[in-house]
Amino acid sequence: MGLILEFPIYDNLVLSDFDERPYANGLVRRLSVLREHARKLMKAFDIRAQAPEQPVGSLSGGNQQKVILARELGTRPQLLIASQPTRGLDVGSIEFVHSRLVTQRDEGLAVLLVSSELDEVLSLADRVAVIYRGKIVAELEGEAIDRERIGLLMAGAA
Amino acid sequence: MISRRLPPWAVNAVLVPLASVFCGFVVAGVVIAVTGSDPFQALTALFQGAFTNHEAFAETLVASIPYIFLGLGLALGFKAGLFNIGAEGQFYIGGLAGVFVAYSIHGLPGLIEIPLAILAGMLGGFVWSGVAGALKARFGAHEVITTIMLNYIAFLLANYLIDGGLMLAKNVSTPRTPEIDANAELPIIIPGTRLHFGLILAVLAAPAVWFLIERTTIGFQLRSVGFNPTAARANGMSVGRTLVLSMGISGALAGAAGIVQILGLSHHMTDTVAAGYGFDAIAVALLARSNPWGVLPAAFLFGALRNGASFMQLETQVSADLVSIVQAMVIIFVAAPVIVRWLLRLRAQPVQELQLAERDEATVV
Measuring CA to CA, how many Å separate B348 from each of B4, B112, B245, B351? Predict the structure, then answer.
């Protein structure tokens, strides 16, 4: 869903619900509410920054990704589509993103993970669908999730 | 170095523009010297013409008024990523719409007539530039092209309506509209000068525009679209609607410049009323770095240049057009902060400016 790198953290955390209560009162934005909201999420999602006013562009890739995660999960969605959520992140941040996705799954959120990292898919997914040439060629569950079989499906060999 | 002791925002917003202006004057001085006149004499005359007695100073303020409104409008456009070249045309349309109201109504108190006329002018400017916004939102037509085209239509429309007769006053030697109603005239605030109430309206408009951009949900969408339209769209904002609205507000402020100029100064409209203000104002907004507060000093500088120029020409025979060189050089230095930073021996900011170039590569969930 993207970030606006020039904007401070507190703005990026409300990019989609900036005009709703309590973040805005009619047309007027409530900066103190936004800052407080940001402080809370920064704590909950371990976003390392000096202050909510810091431009998102000055954060590390991992912390930027946490900002997105905090924003999207903060709205209590029913479905989360996570496309390449850990691409380019450091090991610690990858670990954090993974544990967050699992926690959300445990709390009943439907998570659709799109990833080219086979290890990521194998360690997180309950059910795996393999796409080959634009079509889903197989859906595997439980014991059937097998690295070799998936590899063959990805190459179109099965 | 002074720059070390200043916070970064002060360097960006104050030091670099000031240095740009200074460099502009230096280059202009060199040009004067090359053409065989004394640059110190000429620039002294320029300052005398702009400031020395209270009448000259008042005239400088008078000239600043349209620059403030126009500069605010253009700065707001820049914030939304819109390069509005059409302020001159929007000035005309605002003038036409406003003056029509101002000479058509009679006998109402000024407190009603003046706001009505100004609203009409702003609406005219809004609609006119909104067309360019809609063309961009709907067809992707670039606003630089469409606003330039709309300028020609606006000039010719003004020419047609005024010289052509529909809005022509009876029994006048040069073509102009009828005089506005006496109650619609903006009062003079310093007796004995031409300084009118428009100055107060213009100065009040600056915080209003600042508030709109920085503190409202409209301004938030406007800035989001300006920085990163892809992210704005992905987060559910209507980019098209924001473009039309931003362009419209930008034009409304230009329209306000037009009608305030008429209500405060000429009290009728001719087809030469804008006189290049709309184009100069692009420089005002650039010098202000699109900051509404910065528009005030930038507009004041341009008002002073415009007002001092004729006195300079009278006193030293240096052409008043030289002021255009100062303006142009100021813009070059503002647009190329690297030069000024190098002159000031500042290190380029590594973080912020690089990210501007990379902003489309924001990570995506």
Answer: 13, 52, 35, 9
pLDDT in tens, B142-175: 999 999 999 999 999 999 999 988 888 888 888 8
Helix B198-215 vs helix B239-261: crossing angle, to nearest 10: 170
In tens, the pLDDT along B168-190 reads 888 888 889 999 999 999 999 99
Q: ipTM score of the complex?
A: 0.79
Closest CA to B252 of B116, B70, B78, B85: B70
pLDDT of residue A156: 85
CB atoms within 10 A of CB A43: 10
Tell me the chain B residues in contact with residue A13 when contact means C-beta distances shorter than 8 Å. Answer: none
> How far from chain centre, in Å, is Cα B16?
20
In chain B, which residues touch A (CB < 8 A)? 215-218, 220-221, 223-224, 227-228, 230-232, 234-236, 351-352, 355-356, 358-359, 362-365
User: Among residues B225, B200, B230, B228, which one has the least CA distance to residue B213?
Assistant: B225
Residue B104: Cβ-neighbour burial (10 angstroms; 0-12, 13-18, 19+): middle
pLDDT(B351) > 90: no
Phi and psi at residue A110, in whole multiples of 5°? -80, 125
Residue numbers in A near B351 (CB within 8 A): 57-58
Quick one: which H or E segment has residue A28?
A: strand A28-29
CB pairs under 8 A between A and B: 88
What string of DSSP letters covers A97-152?
HHHHHHHHHHTT-EEEEE-S-HHHHHHH-SEEEEEETTEEEEEEEGGG--HHHHHH
Contact B143, B136 (CB under 8 A): yes
Written as one letter, the residue type at B55 is: E
Q: Report the predicted TM-score, pTM, of the whole model to 2 decimal places.
A: 0.85
